[in-house]
Amino acid sequence: MLFIIGLGLGDERDITLRGLEAVKSCEKVYMESYTSLLSFGLDSHGLSNLEKLYGKTITLADREMVEEKAHHILEEARHSHVAFLVVGDPFGATTHTDLVVRAKKMGIHVQSVHNASVMNAIGICGLQLYRYGETVSIPFFTDSWRPDSFYEKIHSNRTMGLHTLCLLDIRVKEPTLESLARGRKTYEPPRYMTINTAIEQLLEVVQERQQPAYTEDTQCVGFARLGSDDQMIIAGTMKQLQMVDFGAPLHCLVITGNTHPLEEEMLEFYRCRT
Amino acid sequence: MLFIIGLGLGDERDITLRGLEAVKSCEKVYMESYTSLLSFGLDSHGLSNLEKLYGKTITLADREMVEEKAHHILEEARHSHVAFLVVGDPFGATTHTDLVVRAKKMGIHVQSVHNASVMNAIGICGLQLYRYGETVSIPFFTDSWRPDSFYEKIHSNRTMGLHTLCLLDIRVKEPTLESLARGRKTYEPPRYMTINTAIEQLLEVVQERQQPAYTEDTQCVGFARLGSDDQMIIAGTMKQLQMVDFGAPLHCLVITGNTHPLEEEMLEFYRCRT
């Protein structure tokens, strides 16, 4: 049996009772460390908090391990209870869907334990979840690679009056160019896109467009460390939010569409005071 | 202090440790009973399970009570810890946003505890959450009231290749016409829209359209009791799903847009076998 267990967004206390019961029943516990480890404040200290709570040793599984050793993990799950822990909800990221597909093809029983994810926790700012259009991802621009397919999606959403959730790039365990050339893996330090960088890129992309989908005066909401005790949520124009120091990762950004009065009232509590 | 605590989707075991800790610290515990009580299997038996777990008496709060007595609830929260329990995530429904706005205006400190909601738990079927467009609500048609504003939204979503989550109507504690006339309140029995009725209405609405946004052969996914031990998830055409008995509420329906290979692979496990 393979349990895919969502841990929620804050810390070890955000697991559900159902999830805790499942993980305690498992002989082996893996935790994905590639999509959003840091959101969980997981240095080695954080990990030992989880291990204490579960009474289990946790094996961190980065992308490489899940892709290369999935078969090994799944073989274990064929004969015993194996937990695969995921920050947020299990089906936020494609990689976990892939693991489930492989498990099911091997005839292994899979049970999912749901939890909050960024996709619904952003509801806290007052913008109604059913008024969102397609979610976009904003990748780090480099000198030679500046993909802007997110622009057309934001444009469509705003044309229909819908809000847009922008997920910001995370680069964890990226091999250095040098190491790729040498065939011996060393890794870049992890990078997490800030709201400031995201807005900079958004405004760069819009510069040469006719009838721009948004401007520096467009209302947005910035979220940092959503679901944690020290989360930060600020509503303001792109120009205003660009001046805010949101602190440690993870960040995400919502570009508003048309807002209703109740949405406005709620945003008022998060309004930028500069 | 007002705690708005999401209970998740299944049963009492879906609360988070953080949520349980908060509710145990409260002197008064309310639970919303108007948006999705039944999804929680909450007869009086279910409620006593919750009360046992929390070691607290729970006061059920229907829409009327929250609207009429919000001030009373909030006055209590000014001087003591009050929990307001919500099935799913706190910000799934507008009514809770309204309560939070009122609390904040009164200067009452509000803390939210997130959890899974339908909006992210549908990820389990393999259709990626970032590939969804605007969510629609399908209301019960009557002889004289057949609002079809959902159609244009589905049309937009499908034109862009996006999936559409259809939330199905719930009618709980609706005053009878007779009682409205008499000024003495009696209520209609609760009604929950089935996937079958939703598809019937969807197909009725599309009948006279040019270039219909979908047909009876459009691929959909039906969900019943999502997140519960006896959840049912079936993928098939509208015509196929219309023949399926999904059993007890709550139901919801996803109309697919363009699907990627990994999404298709995952849907295959849920495919209708008729």
TrEMBL record, chains A, B:
InterPro entries: 4pyrrol_Mease (IPR000878), 4pyrrol_Methylase_sf (IPR035996), 4pyrrole_Mease_sub1 (IPR014777), 4pyrrole_Mease_sub2 (IPR014776), Dphthn_synthase (IPR004551). It comes from the Eukaryota. The keyword Methyltransferase applies. It is an enzyme of class 2 (transferase). Keywords: Methyltransferase, S-adenosyl-L-methionine, Transferase. SUPFAM superfamilies: Tetrapyrrole methylase. It catalyses: 2-[(3S)-amino-3-carboxypropyl]-L-histidyl-[translation elongation factor 2] + 4 S-adenosyl-L-methionine = diphthine methyl ester-[translation elongation factor 2] + 4 S-adenosyl-L-homocysteine + 3 H(+). Pathway: Protein modification; peptidyl-diphthamide biosynthesis. S-adenosyl-L-methionine binds at L9, D89, G92, S117, V118, L168, L226, H251. S-adenosyl-L-methionine-dependent methyltransferase that catalyzes four methylations of the modified target histidine residue in translation elongation factor 2 (EF-2), to form an intermediate called diphthine methyl ester. The four successive methylation reactions represent the second step of diphthamide biosynthesis. This is diphthine methyl ester synthase.
